[in-house]
Amino acid sequence: MRGHKRKHILVTGGAGFLGSHLCERLLNAGHEVICVDNFFTGDRDNILAISGHPRFEFIRHDITLPIYLEVDEIYNLACPASPIHYQLDPVQTTKTSVHGAINMLGLAKRTGAKIFQASTSEVYGDPAMHPQQESYWGNVNPIGPRACYDEGKRCAETLFFDYNRQHKTRIRVARIFNTYGPRMHPNDGRVVSNFIVQALRGEPITLFGEGQQTRSFCYVDDLIEGFVKLMDAPDDVTGPINLGNPVEFTIQQLAELVIELTGAGSILVHKPLPQDDPRQRKPDITLAQQHLNWQPTIPLREGLGKTIAYFEGLLQRGEL
Ligand code: NAD
Ligand code: UDP
Ligand code: UDP
Q: What residues does the NAD-dependent epimerase/dehydratase domain cover (predicted)?
């Protein structure tokens, strides 16, 4: 390829929701992509379209175990992401974040590769600061049922910064906020997939509480663009850097939009608000705007349309 350096790039968790979009994005940019995944929450169907691509390679492997590959860049995404999934085997969740990070950082150290970590807004825990800036240290319960995820991701960040200081490993840490799009899991209890599946089945839409709590939803393509921009940024831009969409919607507004776009006849029903459900979550993306010249461009209405089309496909094939 003229005027372009083809890189060898490892994507862990590449058969998952975000990872499969990232693999496609990197293949389209002309790179060689190695996807490593143990299929804990990932799915072969997510990488079906690229599985025959001449520059794509899949390795079934658990990143808590060492792996030796020669690569230029590593995107470390492997980790179950929703409470239903990460609480199935909490010890394995911590191992994936911590042992997985150590192995991937060891690989980066040996090969000199740049390494990106998919961290999360959950490192802020139940935040005492709105919106959350990267300088906020968070408020996490270290012994609760969410700790395997939150503390695992916090420890992974610690490891990234210690490898950076101790071994000069080139690191990029993104703190990802709520993201939606095609290939998100239909059964993981998240609000966007719940509402779309309920609407397509003509079932009532379940609003927890009054539905006046707010969230901000980033469409997957916008997020993946942010990943690539962060990876390509100068080495002093290590992060942590928030990536998400700062436009807030109430959960009731989301429900009404899903009903409108699906044309469903669903009614809204109220269910009890889960304990400790945050009233508001919104990223402060000033750093990403300044350092990466990045901000989301796809409005909720447009992104929901594409996501609904994906779930309609699953429904028609009897996979929902
Ligand atoms: P996902 O569950 O779809 O993808 C995770 C992938 O990692 C799956 O394919 C799974 O099989 C794989 N995996 C899990 N444990 C593994 C292990 N030990 N070894 C190898 N592979 C393993 O989730 P996602 O939404 O695509 O999330 C990707 C990453 O982004 C995760 O690290 C998650 O914590 C982070 N993140 C996602 C969001 C979001 O809104 N989706 C928000 C914040 C952070
Ligand atoms: N590692 C790996 N692939 C590599 C290099 C290292 O999986 O290409 C693992 C290795 O098994 C080790 C971990 O990464 O357990 C950390 O490596 P590092 O070199 O930092 O530490 P050490 O090997 O000295 O414990
Ligand atoms: N929610 C809802 N109905 C559902 C699922 C979720 O009203 O069927 C609400 C939930 O209480 C929360 C918001 O939607 O206020 C976002 O929930 P999700 O689990 O998707 O993400 P998080 O709470 O981690 O932001």
A: 9-244
